[in-house]
């Protein structure tokens, strides 16, 4: 007898699909859910098998009626922008297809339910736009940096020579301003070019990296800032540049701490994803690391351009932290995105494990 918790051979080909697929019996009990569905509905096949669909998500009346019609009348159904509420309370907006299965395909299955999150389509479009924008702005910045570096060095050198020639010591205060500002700009130029250094890959443990980030944050923001762990300790190791990955999570978490003025809570959460598409490539396994804060949120005017160079929502910010983080994530063939509202901002970084 086949264990209900094992993938039935009949449906094993559905494991590789990017869309969520559920197979239901005549009582609308779940007989199978593919890995994409496990990710979307935040359940495992072992947990979901044999349970009613309503235990996984609350379906609107239109979808419920479509399921009953498919059972009773053998009618298919396609719906757009349907709202499902997951068992943990999260609301999903999806496109949905219900397909009746012919009797005889398998004795205990009747319906095939396909769910395609609208958010995933929008995220893919946003990601493609961001990548193109990042390439264009990166090329512009490299050209600007090379044009600025030489005259900036000349200004600094001239200020030093002038300082030696000044007879009045009180006037040296002004040359020092020129020198210090020139040094600040030179440092900015170096940081703008930092993302383009060669990677030094090695096998890394993501939790060791996050613990390093946590240690740096707690020492930098001593006081009311709490950095909480929510780790899945079963996560596999991945191949990556340790220093770049530390910089990614430090930049994101430091932005959160600064937005909260060092007071509030940051959660570092890790999970594994199966059969996921990142940067237009399909991977069997990926790591998802979320940096969650309970701060004021990112201003709406900044959200659409926050990964662009020199864009900052904070007074005195350089606007490079998220740009560098995005560059380093892309070096690792991963993705980074953000959802923000007052009281909760979530940065989700997804990194592939192994080859596509």
Q: Which secondary structure elements does this structure contain, and how are they paired or packed?
A:
Elements: E1 20-24, E2 30-33, H1 35-41, H2 45-48, H3 53-56, E3 57-58, H4 61-73, E4 77-86, E5 91-100, E6 111-117, H5 118-165, H6 172-193, E7 201-204, H7 206-220, E8 225-230, E9 238-241, H8 242-259, E10 264-278, E11 281-293, H9 300-303, H10 321-331, E12 335-341, E13 344-353
Parallel strand pairs: 8-10
Antiparallel strand pairs: 1-2, 1-6, 3-4, 4-5, 5-6, 7-9, 10-11, 11-13, 12-13
Helix pairs in contact: 5-6, 7-8, 8-10
Written account of the structure:
The chain has 356 residues and is of the alpha+beta class. The chain has 2 domains: 14-120, PAS domain (Beta-Lactamase); 199-356, 2-Layer Sandwich (Heat Shock Protein 90). It has 10 helices and 13 strands. The chain has helices at residues 35-41, 45-48, 53-56, 61-73, 118-165, 172-193, 206-220, 242-259, 300-303, 321-331, and strands at 20-24, 30-33, 57-58, 77-86, 91-100, 111-117, 201-204, 225-230, 238-241, 264-278, 281-293, 335-341, 344-353. The protein has a 6-stranded antiparallel sheet. A 5-stranded mixed sheet has the order 8-10-11-13-12. A hairpin with a 5-residue loop joins β1 (20-24) and β2 (30-33). α5 (118-165) packs antiparallel against α6 (172-193), α7 (206-220) runs parallel beside α8 (242-259) and α8 packs antiparallel against α10 (321-331). The relative contact order is 0.09. Residues 1-5 have low confidence and may be disordered. Pfam families: HATPase_c, HisKA, PAS. Keywords: ATP-binding, Hydrolase, Kinase, Nitrogen fixation, Nucleotide-binding, Phosphoprotein, Transferase, Two-component regulatory system.
């Amino acid at each position: 007898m086949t264990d209900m918790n094992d993938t039935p051979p009949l449906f094993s080909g559905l494991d590789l699909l990017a869309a969520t697929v559920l197979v239901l019996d005549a009582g609308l009990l779940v007989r199978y859910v593919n890995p994409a569905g496990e990710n979307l509905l935040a359940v495992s096949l072992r947990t979901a098998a044999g349970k009613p669909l309503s235990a996984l998500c609350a379906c609107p009346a239109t979808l419920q009626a479509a399921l009953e019609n498919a059972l009773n009348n053998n009618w298919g159904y396609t719906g757009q922008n349907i709202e499902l509420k997951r068992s943990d309370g999260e609301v999903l907006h999806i496109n949905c297809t219900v397909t009746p299965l012919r009797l005889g395909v398998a004795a205990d299955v009747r319906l095939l339910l396909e769910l395609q999150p609208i958010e995933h389509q929008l995220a893919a479009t946003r990601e493609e736009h961001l990548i193109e924008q990042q390439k264009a702005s990166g090329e512009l910045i490299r050209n600007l940096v090379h044009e600025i570096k030489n005259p900036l060095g000349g200004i600094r050198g001239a200020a030093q020579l002038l300082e030696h020639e000044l007879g009045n010591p009180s006037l040296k205060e002004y040359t020092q301003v020129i020198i210090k500002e020139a040094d600040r700009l030179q440092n900015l130029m170096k940081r703008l070019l930092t993302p383009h250094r060669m990677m030094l890959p090695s096998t890394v443990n993501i939790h060791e990296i996050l613990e390093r980030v946590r240690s740096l944050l707690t020492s930098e923001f001593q006081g009311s800032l709490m950095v909480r762990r929510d780790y899945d300790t079963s996560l596999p190791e991945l191949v990556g540049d340790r220093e770049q990955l530390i910089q990614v999570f430090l930049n994101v978490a430091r932005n959160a701490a600064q937005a909260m003025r060092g007071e509030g809570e940051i959660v570092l959460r890790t999970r594994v994803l199966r059969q996921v598409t990142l940067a237009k490539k399909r991977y069997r396994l990926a790591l998802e690391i979320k940096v969650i804060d309970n701060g004021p949120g990112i201003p709406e005017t900044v959200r659409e351009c926050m990964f662009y160079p020199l864009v900052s929502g904070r007074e005195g910010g350089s606007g490079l932290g998220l740009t560098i983080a995005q560059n380093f994530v892309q070096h690792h063939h991963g993705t980074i995105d953000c959802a923000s509202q007052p009281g909760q901002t979530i940065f989700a970084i997804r990194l592939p494990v192994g080859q596509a």
